[in-house]
Design brief:
Shape: globular
Structural class: alpha+beta
Number of helices: 8
Low-confidence stretches: 1-16, 229-252
Number of strands: 9
Strand content: 15-25%
Order of helices and strands: HHEEEEEEHHHEHHEEH
Length: 252
């Protein structure tokens, strides 16, 4: 794997998140195939036969579940150094989400047979990779807790911190840059309506955490982190939070 690609596997992640090390990724790459995807390309579809696992090398991958109403929910955005589609490592598996590449992503696919060879021939590094898989599953459980216990503003802040872990969302000055096209993604990540997301973003602007320039929001990452504790709950009281009386449906 080229050195430039390995460096892409070392983003700054929110506390509690982990990623594949450059050494583990390089060894794993010898057992897989790299693929470059155009923006919004569907890598795989829910309920189709799953095999193996994938890791993101560049860009990010959006995992999405669609409801009958046409709306959808994003359980995870996978950034460089993280994996997806690991349900393919279980017997007779099918994918449980759709997976879409975003902004010219590059991924590494390792089939079940090749993953078994990797584990057999590199046991010490395999322990690291399995530990990474477990860390990512734990993060999904944390998100379930957030969906059940937090209000829209709190879940939005957690979603923004997640996006900030991918440099493709950064502006030239290092702030998180949210364009109009990202609003739907935020709705799907947070599980809220566009109106609720717009109100929450306005509160961030009013608190000085974000700046609005036309349809673009620029969010100061440091200020964002100062107003949320490790468990996702506002710790300073500087960001006014309003508890929802009814949970809105995810936006489509």
């Amino acid at each position: 794997m080229p050195l430039a690609t390995i460096r892409m596997l070392t983003p700054t992640l929110p506390r509690g998140r982990s990623k594949l090390s450059a050494e583990d990724a390089t060894t794993l790459a010898a057992y897989g195939a790299r693929t470059s995807w155009p923006s919004n390309f569907q890598i795989y579809q829910r309920a189709t036969t799953a095999d193996g696992m994938s890791a993101v090398l560049r860009g990010h991958v959006v995992l999405r579940n669609r409801a009958r109403s046409g709306r959808s929910f994003v359980p995870s955005i996978v950034i460089p150094g993280e994996t997806f589609g690991i349900e393919g490592l279980s017997p007779e598996a099918t994918y449980i989400t759709d997976a879409y590449a975003s902004d010219d992503a590059e991924t590494l696919f390792v089939s079940s047979a090749q993953f078994s060879a990797f584990v057999r021939e590199n046991p010490s590094q395999a322990i690291h990779v399995v530990g990474q898989l477990m860390s990512e599953r734990a993060a999904l459980l944390e998100k379930l807790h957030a969906m059940a216990s937090q209000n829209v503003e709190q879940r939005l802040v957690c979603a923004l911190r997640r996006l900030a872990a991918d440099r493709s969302f950064h502006s030239n000055d290092g702030r998180l840059r949210l364009e109009l096209k990202h609003h739907r993604l935020l709705c799907e990540m947070v599980g809220a309506t566009r109106e609720s997301i717009a109100l929450a973003l306005s509160r961030l602007v009013g608190s000085g955490i974000a700046e609005r320039k036309g349809v673009v929001f620029l969010v100061a990452q440091k200020r964002l982190s100062e107003h949320i504790s490790a468990d996702g709950v506002d710790s300073e009281g500087a960001l006014p939070l309003v508890r929802e009386t009814a949970r809105p449906q995810p936006a489509g």
